[in-house]
Amino acid sequence: MNFLFVALGGAIGAVARYAISLIPVRTGFPVLTLITNILGAILIGFVVGVSARKGNASSNSVLFWKTGVCGGFTTFSTFSLEAYKLFENQAYMMGGLYVGCSVIFCIFGIFLGEKIASVLG
Predict the structure, then answer these.
(1) Are 64 and 5 in contact (CB under 8 A)?
(2) Rounded distance, CA 40 to CA 96, Å?
(3) Nearest CA to 12 among 76, 78, 57, 63?
(4) Among 36, 38, 88, 117, which residue has the least CB neighbours within 10 Å?
């Protein structure tokens, strides 16, 4: 049964990620992947925050949201490929900025998601 919750959440996350990738953006900077990963970080922080506050969150619900939706939505492999391509194309400043922004903003996103959960919960 756990696999079903993960699979359903993963499908929703993957479709949402694909929808964001369709936004027409013309830049050499992988902004849509960065935005997707930041949103995913906020969401997983929110899920963790709600789970911690409620204490009795169903394990199926956590699997659905955290492992399924967030796992299907965020894009670490895409992030890694885009960073690699930037460095390979000698866009070192842009590559460094992308890696730095991704790490810092996503960690902040988790913090922000947990704070939102505590305010709403």
Answers:
(1) yes
(2) 21
(3) 63
(4) 88
**For the chain, how long is the longest CA-to-CA vector?**
50
What is the pTM (predicted TM-score) of this model?
0.88
> In whole angstroms, what is the distance from residue 89 CA to residue 96 CA?
13
The candidate with the shortest Cα–Cα distance to 46, out of 119, 89, 110, 121, is 110
Distance between CA atoms of residues 116 and 5, nearest Å: 24
Distances (CA, A) of 12 to 18, 49, 60, 106: 10, 21, 15, 20
Q: What is the mean pLDDT of the chain?
A: 94
Rg (CA), the chain: 16
Confidence of residue 121 (pLDDT cuts 50, 70, 90): confident
